[in-house]
Amino acid sequence: MVSYSDVKASNAALPTTYGPGYVAVFTGATSGIGEATLKALASRLKGVKVYIVGRNESSASPLIADLRQRCPDGTFTFIETEIGLLKNADAIAAQVKAKESKIDLLWCSAGFLNFTGARQETAEGLDVSMTTRYYSRMRLLQQLLPLLSAGNGRVVSCLAAGKEGALNEDDLDLKDPKNYGLIKAAVHTSTMMTLTMDVWAEQHPNVSFIHFYPGVVITPSFSKGHSGGLFGWFIQYVVPILSWPISISLQESGDRGLFFCTASLYKRGPAESGEKRSKSTRGGAYNLHYNGESVGDEQLLNNYHEKSVDQKVLNFLQQKFDTLIK
Asked: CA nearest 141: which of 80, 205, 213, 93?
């Protein structure tokens, strides 16, 4: 476990660790945990260059103004698009590649919880919730891996590390309505995220892959999914009240997010003098609770590795990319 005081001390020392030229791509950062992390980064680093992906540039203008106040010598570029479509993930990557030769960070926290319990599909035929939580994140990561490798960078995916579970290997997409549900979709995306990042971590030993669970943080996401009748109403209005005693503030969540993005604890490769490394998964990725503890059902995940389910998931993912992206 990493104490909050240690997190703040590490973040305070960042100006001596990272100089100007730090390049980051943020998705899901126009509100909630992503926004808090982005503000923490802009407050600590000088001369940063950040690409912020969101649906509405006009709505994000107060955020951009705030970031420029925090980091006057930084560059903040807004990419207006819908991250829930795979073709748009390719367009985002192409725009970044056209301007950068390396990136230090890819942050992913865009998400949508479908409280109706029924599958809702995008124009590409993928479930909306599973796309924002898994497919589009992995497509953007795949396309930006060459730049992350060039920068010895890291990807930080805020989702549900430690919440992995059994996969329906015959229907990884949960296409059959009988197999779909809010919890099932959440388990599938979390498990496939962990397995995919673990395989890619083996293939890209100089990139840090971090999948973390943010804990209970009351954010606007509690209301974005309020389309599911009574259950959605319960999530929006009752859960925040019941969760308050065990929740953490957005401020702490943003500080911890920045810690995951920058701390030497989650670097790849041998530790230098005085450095420590967190426990990693089999492939070398980091599966973390918000407090920095390594999490996950090792027996389940190792079993999936031994049975090559991780490769099955990766092949399934690539097949989706090849079929849907023209």
From this structure: 93
Question: Cα separation of 311 and 317, whole Å?
Answer: 10
- Please write the tens of the pLDDT for every residue from 140-151: 999 999 999 998
Alpha carbon 10 to chain centroid, angstroms: 21
User: 249-264 pLDDT, tens per residue?
Assistant: 899 999 999 999 999 9
Q: Which residue has the tokens 């890209």?
A: 204
Mean pLDDT within 93-118: 91
Is the Cα dihedral 235, 241, 245, 250 positive or negative? positive
User: Is residue 197 within a helix (H) or strand (E), and if so which, with residue range?
Assistant: helix 182-203
| Confidence (pLDDT) at 240 | 54
Tell me the HSE value of 87 on the side-chain side, using a 13 A CA sphere: 8
d(CA 201, CA 118) in angstroms, rounded, equals 33
User: Residue written as tokens 């023209």?
Assistant: 326
Q: DSSP string of 218-249?
A: --THHHHT--SHHHHHIIIIIHHHHHGGG---
- On the question of pLDDT at 208 being above 80, the answer is yes
Per DSSP, the three-state class of 58 is helix
Instruction: Measure the CA–CA gap between 113 and 182, rounded to whole angstroms.
Output: 8
DSSP SS3 for 65: helix
Tokens standing for residue 108: 């992913």
